[in-house]
Amino acid sequence: IEEQLRRSEKLSTLGEMAAVLAHEIRNPLGSIRGTAEILKDDYKPENPKYEFIEIQIRETERLNRVVEDFLHMARPQPTDMQSCQVLDELEMISTLLLSGARERQITLELKSPPFPVTIQADGDKLRQAFLNIIINALQATPIGGRVLISTTVHASTTCEIQFHDTGPGMDAATMERMFEPFFTTKPGGTGLGLVITKKIIETHGGTLMVESEVGKGTTVIVKLPMQTAANGGMP
Ligand code: ADP
Ligand code: MG
């Protein structure tokens, strides 16, 4: 299951990166094609160089299609906003990770209010974000440590989820760079988990903050707007 989660983390990351990369490729490709068209006007079809320019145009078109197809395959789903039960989602992700945690004698604990916490969210993306944060916490936590996920609600308008671990914490240099794409301190890490996670939370109108102290542990604090009558909830 560890491998499965690893793969799913990598895949969603890959989808986001693919969209960025495709965009970055398509723009210069448009310039290459446009200028090749202009050059083509300078040559008669008999000229052997005419053929070369046609090859350039044909190949830019092909590259454009490859990018298009790849994007189609990898493009993150259009955000499908629905009523989501935060506590259920957290419970689901925790259950998935429980056996891995148990293997390392880590206590994975949920502290939740006794009432439902409903937000408007794309469930897949929300789970992905929670998964990335909890995987980081579990990876940082030593054998016998503890990961605590506690949810609170402020004035029925904001829900706050704290993901606390008893890992080594982060030094100032890591704190400064943790949201940089590809920044990782782990062998085999992608350095994309937190970038993507922050983006997911922010596209849901929320915020992500990190508090960390070397030797003490790390707390990731996610705040999300609660569902109200105004944003799709039942009055
Ligand atoms: P990755 O997990 O692939 O390294 P992330 O973007 O998820 O990439 O995290 C970036 C870096 O932030 C990690 O390599 C690690 O140094 C640091 N980090 C993230 N979460 C924690 C945590 N809970 N405890 C300590 N360090 C963390
Ligand atoms: Mg990570």
UniProtKB/TrEMBL annotation:
The keyword Oxidoreductase does not apply. Its EC number is 2.7.13.3. One of its GO terms (molecular function) is phosphorelay sensor kinase activity. Keywords: ATP-binding, Kinase, Membrane, Nucleotide-binding, Phosphoprotein, Plasmid, Transferase, Transmembrane, Transmembrane helix, Two-component regulatory system. Residues 20-228 form the Histidine kinase domain. It catalyses: ATP + protein L-histidine = ADP + protein N-phospho-L-histidine. This is histidine kinase. The chain holds residues 138 to 372 of 372 of the full protein.
